[in-house]
Amino acid sequence: MEGEMKRKGGEPKYGSVSIPMGILEEIDYLIERLRYWPSRSAFIREACLEKIRRERERLREVERRRRESSPGD
User: Fold this and answer.
1) Per-residue pLDDT reduced to its tens digit, 24-34
2) Which residues in the chain show pLDDT less than 50?
3) What is the 3-state secondary structure (H, E, C) of 40-57?
């Protein structure tokens, strides 16, 4: 995966986060009803990657606008 942090030996690093129970319950509901994701972790990983892609695109657009509006370039 692009940008994934790795430890020596190639093992991915993992961290933990706290997610409000209401959000976890909604995730569990979607997993149960859609039967697409094998676990909460899979759902959350995919959701995070989607959000990262979207925000990187937004950042590229902001940076492009800044370059275009910079006087003297």
Assistant:
1) 999 999 999 99
2) 1
3) HHHHHHHHHHHHHHHHHH
